[in-house]
Design goal:
elongated; 0% strand; 82% helix
């Protein structure tokens, strides 16, 4: 990509708490239901998913959305956390969890980078250079 990703303001403490809550909810509740069903009755769940046209359409839609978001992250040059991290988060906790967790990881990375830039600027000022 020719241009750098646009600068996005850091999340507030309240926003981080809200996203953490959403991510935790999405990891535990929808995935808990899914994994309970998969562990308790794996064949019934798989057959129901494949034979129910609404479930099948939802799975295809979610797969397409996941692929599209991964491509978007790659195209917009999110080197860290990156599109592979997004796909891993999706596999571990579902798409909703992955979106919230990715936003939190990206915010943490940007906060670290901002601190590093501020520290480098302060060191340069202490040395008397600009």
């Amino acid at each position: 990509m020719d241009e750098p990703a646009p600068s996005i303001p850091l999340l507030s403490r309240r926003q981080r708490k809200l996203l953490t809550g959403f991510a935790g909810f999405c990891l535990v509740v929808p995935n808990g239901i899914f994994w309970f069903g998969m562990l308790a009755h794996p064949m019934q769940v798989l057959l129901a998913l494949v034979h129910n046209p609404v479930s099948l359409a939802a799975m295809i839609s979610l797969a397409a959305l996941t692929a599209g978001l991964a491509w978007f992250l790659h195209d917009r040059d999110f080197a860290r956390p990156g599109w592979i991290t997004f796909l891993v988060l999706t596999a571990l906790g579902g798409l909703a969890f992955a979106i919230f967790a990715f936003l939190l990881l990206d915010d943490a990375r940007r906060a670290r980078e901002r601190e590093e830039r501020q520290e480098a600027e302060a060191r340069r000022r202490r040395r008397g250079g600009r």
